[in-house]
Amino acid sequence: MFKFAPTGFTLHKNLDETATLRILNAFAVDVIAIPSVEDLFWYVAQNVVGQLNFVDCVIYQANQDQTELTQVAALGEKNPFGRSIINPLKIPFGQGITGKVAQDRKAIIVDDLLKDQNYIPDTQPARSEICVPLVSRGRVVGVIDSEHPNPGVFGAPEMEVLTTVAAMASAKIELLEEAERSKQRYQDLVKSHAQLSEETTNRKALESKLYEARKLESIGRLTGRFAHDFNNFLTVISGNLELLEGDISPPLSIASLTDAQTAAARGAKLIRDMLAFSQRTRLNPVISDLNDLVINTCERSKHLLTHAVELTLADDLWVVNVDPKVAENALVNLILNAQDSMSEGGRLEITTENITHDWSDKQALATGLDPGNYVRLSVKDQGEGIPEDCLAQIFDPFFTTKGVGAGSGLGLSMVFGFMQQSGGAVEVESKVAQGSIFRLYFPAASSNKNDLLTLNP
Ligand SMILES: Nc1ncnc2c1ncn2[C@@H]1O[C@H](COP(=O)(O)OP(=O)(O)OP(=O)(O)O)[C@@H](O)[C@H]1O
Ligand SMILES: [Mg+2]
Question: Phi then psi for 186, rounded to 5 degrees?
Answer without folding.
Answer: -65, -45
